[in-house]
């Protein structure tokens, strides 16, 4: 039993080198290294000489002849391109003929493409071969990494697609030389698990993949930096918020301490005058709170107010003492004792 991969490997397939697609097209068609660039150049020079001789028949002194000599060759150029005339003459050596696929003469024959043996396709300066090997068709384009299997049903669609893309298609008529792939594939059909790619496509995809990976990595680094920056900003914002809260808490604690201190000072005075003073002081505090000034009191201002309050209490106590009658004039020891008790009470209150 034949190895299917070995069957595919038996197909001769020249890959693209420079602009020698005409050479690759012919060799892939004939399934061997039958033509070299030197061979095709010789055919091109021969065609150029035949054209020159025809132009000289009109007179070597004519303007048309001098213009023809100044023009470059129409059968080849320095890049390796060869004209359809060169390919046609090369195939004629093997008894093969080119027929234009979409010509009226050929289309009038109503021939199914699968009944042909091979096609040559040309678009601008590129040539490639489609050939039947055994009972199967293969696209032998030199721009592919290997032969591409084409089904019988897809062949007509493929040719129509090429025509729509602007390709000129030529039918190969004649007996193609025998080849190894023809002998092997005559007995067994092959299957292709993976279609070939265009030459350079893998490298391009690999390069594109690396570029995409590098771009993603760079984007990842940028995103990560942005996330780090956002985290740092969030941390700083939380820290500032905590500082503001601590400051507000300290101010609130200070105001509560001042209020408690004021209440303690008021409650420590037990005399009717001190109670009246506490009511007055409370009303003043309420007025200050209403006016929005109590929040601005500092500990030093509070101390000064408390000191002024105590000074007023002391002055009132002294004035009360000076207004009392002399104990000697009253002759009553009780009055003296009473005055002494009041003095002691006032001193304790101070």
Question: Can you describe this structure?
Answer:
This protein is of the alpha+beta class and 350 residues long. It has a domain of 132 residues: Cathepsin B, Chain A, CATH 3.90.70. The protein is 59% helix and 9% strand. The chain contains 13 helices and six strands. Strands 1-6-2-3-4-5 form a six-stranded antiparallel beta sheet, sandwiched between helices. A hairpin with a 2-residue loop joins β2 and β3. The termini are far apart. The C terminus is likely disordered.
Spell out the blueprint of helices and strands:
Elements: H1 4-9, H2 21-30, H3 37-56, H4 63-70, H5 84-92, E1 97-100, H6 104-107, E2 118-123, E3 126-133, E4 136-139, E5 148-150, H7 152-164, E6 168-173, H8 180-185, H9 201-267, H10 272-291, H11 299-322, H12 327-330, H13 333-349
Helix pairs in contact: 3-5
Domain Josephin: 8-187
Region (Disordered): 265-350
Organism: Scophthalmus maximus (Turbot)
Q: How much strand content do the residues show?
A: 5-15%
Number of helices in the DSSP assignment: 13
Distance between the termini: 126 Å
CATH topology tier name of one domain: Cathepsin B, Chain A
Please write the CATH class name of one domain. Answer: Alpha Beta
The main sheet comes to: 6 strands, antiparallel
Number of strands: 6
Structural class: alpha+beta
The shape is: elongated
From the coordinates shown, what is the CATH architecture of one domain? Alpha-Beta Complex
Low-confidence stretches: 217-228, 244-248, 264-295, 327-342, 346-350
In short:
With 350 residues, this protein is α+β, with helices and mostly antiparallel strands. The chain has helices spanning 4-9, 21-30, 37-56, 63-70, 84-92, 104-107, 152-164, 180-185, 201-267, 272-291, 299-322, 327-330, 333-349, and strands at 97-100, 118-123, 126-133, 136-139, 148-150, 168-173.
